[in-house]
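Per your request, structure below.
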């Protein structure tokens, strides 16, 4: 049984008031998600930089705002249900239980606004979260010395300007202000360095920071039936700095080693990665539309994010973790079917490569190659109001973990079986 209240109840209320929150980890291409906007919910991100049907396009491609008429407001909510369960194997060297379901449920929300100034110029604003993770294991689980709770949350505010250079080519720019929150909690092994039968200590670390980046985009109407989109999102640097809060450290040798370190301040630098996305949307006929996307994400620049306390026989103590992330690729195909003038169905399939090799997978962010299957429906209630619902299955499958303490060499070994996320989303778009 977990000692703490569920993580969302502890960290999210103030962010929810801002109207744009994401606290879960979609594990696709690192910890970026595609389900924060309206149309993308049912398409697995297929066509995201080319399809412009509501203001949420500014998140994927700010140039898409030129395709929208009048003033539009889009509000979206989502619920993420997870099945992330660790199972020990015969080579595991840590005692404790298996941690339970580390991701039970997480809420999210977003808000987008667009306004057409004239025939060539449009402006918009978005509050959304498409970056983050949050995991919560049992406090006495086998991996407690690596993590008990872990949260990285990013909420973006994005004013946007889009301009039609020609009748077919548009350019958009959106400065991005990212509020970042990092928190980790883990047990500290007081039995290190030859001492035994001592209860665990505890480490907590948390901080917030604000970073700035920019979203750029081009939107081109190749023909009346075909639209292309190319979008770039810059890197955003976050610098977390806080004093690690240590408690119940009863091992005198470990206490001595920790005092030799500068534990009054620990800085963690994290780069939310730059991304590139190319998309196409093509009308086969008045009812059928085909969509596709190809993307790249620069996770190798993510940074050495992570905190741990570990010691060897010489009393040397480590404090941070190198994640060894690598760049990822994303591909998606989708289709839309206009069943009636008011009813539109969407479906998509997507694939993301893993940001880590199998040997570098960790229990505070267990990532792997990811498949997405998505379906959604849009219904026009009247001329000024559309409603949207969608479901996405994010399938991670089986992921093996063999994570060792860098200095002591003790290994946590096991796997996540049939790991998956279920993302339920819904929203509304008002047109004035």
């Amino acid at each position: 049984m977990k000692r703490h209240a569920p993580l969302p109840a502890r960290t999210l209320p103030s962010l929810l008031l801002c109207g744009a929150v994401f606290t879960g980890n979609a594990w696709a291409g690192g910890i970026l998600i595609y389900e924060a906007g309206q149309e993308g919910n049912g398409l697995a991100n297929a066509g995201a930089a080319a399809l412009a049907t509501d203001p949420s396009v500014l998140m994927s491609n700010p140039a898409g705002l030129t395709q929208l008429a009048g003033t539009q407001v889009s509000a979206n909510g989502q619920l993420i249900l997870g099945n992330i369960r660790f199972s020990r194997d015969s080579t595991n060297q840590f005692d404790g239980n298996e941690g339970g379901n580390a991701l039970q449920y997480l809420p999210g929300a977003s808000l987008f606004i667009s306004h057409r100034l004239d025939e060539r110029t449009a402006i918009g604003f978005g509050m959304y979260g498409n970056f983050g993770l949050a995991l919560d294991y049992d406090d006495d689980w086998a991996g407690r010395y690596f993590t008990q709770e872990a949260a990285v949350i990013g909420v973006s505010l994005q004013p946007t300007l889009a301009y039609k250079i020609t009748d077919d080519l548009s350019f958009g720019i959106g400065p991005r202000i990212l509020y970042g929150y990092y928190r980790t909690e883990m047990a500290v092994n007081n039995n290190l360095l030859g001492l035994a039968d001592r209860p665990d200590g505890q480490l907590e670390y948390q901080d917030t920071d604000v970073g700035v980046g920019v979203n750029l985009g081009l939107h081109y109407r190749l023909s009346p039936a075909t639209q292309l989109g190319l979008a770039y999102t810059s890197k955003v640097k976050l610098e977390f700095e806080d004093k690690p809060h240590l408690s119940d450290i009863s091992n005198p040798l470990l206490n001595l080693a920790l005092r030799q370190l500068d534990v009054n301040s620990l800085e963690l630098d994290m780069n939310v990665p730059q991304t590139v996305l190319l998309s196409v949307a093509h009308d086969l006929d008045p009812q059928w539309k085909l969509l596709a996307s190809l993307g790249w994400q620069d996770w190798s620049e993510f940074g050495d994010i992570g905190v741990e306390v570990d010691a060897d026989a010489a009393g040397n103590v480590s404090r941070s973790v190198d994640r060894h992330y690598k760049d990822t690729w994303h591909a998606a195909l989708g289709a839309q079917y206009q069943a009636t003038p008011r009813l539109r169905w969407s479906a998509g399939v997507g694939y993301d490569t893993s940001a880590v090799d199998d040997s570098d997978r960790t229990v505070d962010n267990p990532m792997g190659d990811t498949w997405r299957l998505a379906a959604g429906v849009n219904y026009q209630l009247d001329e000024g109001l559309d409603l949207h619902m969608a479901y996405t299955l994010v399938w991670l499958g089986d992921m093996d973990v063999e994570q060792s303490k860098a200095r002591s060499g003790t290994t946590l070994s096991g796997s996540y079986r049939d790991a998956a996320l279920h993302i339920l989303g819904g929203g509304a778009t008002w047109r004035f």
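The first strand starts at residue 21 and ends at 22.

Regards,
D.
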